[in-house]
Amino acid sequence: MGCCTGRCTLIFLCSLQLLAALERQIFDFLGFQWAPILGNFLQIIVVILGLFGTIQFRPRYIVVYTVWTALWVTWNVFIICFYLEVGGLSKETDLMTFNISMHRSWWREHGPGCIRRVVRPSAPGILEDYSYVSVTGCIIDFQYLEVIHSAIQILLSLIGFVYACYVISIFMEEEDSFDFIGGLDTYSYRQPPQEHVELKPVGRSK
């Protein structure tokens, strides 16, 4: 089978998802966001499986990709709720770092237009090596950048889910047709050739 429209589209979508996951993984590493790092790693692995299954006609790999896509959408919805502080969630907690560290999103200090300053307080009684970071002038707040990243992941995943289901149905139909044709060939091959016996009347001997 050549590269049909659905199969080519799924290959293209998997490639986009792979690039988007790699880009997100880099910035999550820079921000020490361990929970998203783990999720991105699984996303990269499963997308590679889906891409391989699509190219090599392996429906089982595409099924794994489809199931994971639903979980990935759920995870990104949670991230959106986390950064928008929906349902009692707070973006100031250490949930994304598994409470290991107090790091925040890399975009918090390095977003577009952000001016980062390290300020050392001059108040008495404070250690000299103590400092805090002042960030001003950001065009877009970091939480909205994280929401945009998650929204892009959700959009690509939903489209990929639809095309993955379509490609799986195509593969299944082709396998059924091949089995049907092969079954007929096997049946005809196993049938023993019929012998044609010519019957002749036997005359009575005088």
From TrEMBL:
GO terms for biological process: regulation of sodium ion transport. InterPro entries: Na/K-Atpase_Interacting. GO terms for cellular component: plasma membrane. Keywords: Cell membrane, Membrane, Signal, Transmembrane, Transmembrane helix. It holds the Pfam family NKAIN. Residues 1-21 form the signal peptide. This is Sodium/potassium-transporting ATPase subunit beta-1-interacting protein. The lineage of its organism: Eukaryota, Metazoa, Chordata, Craniata, Vertebrata.
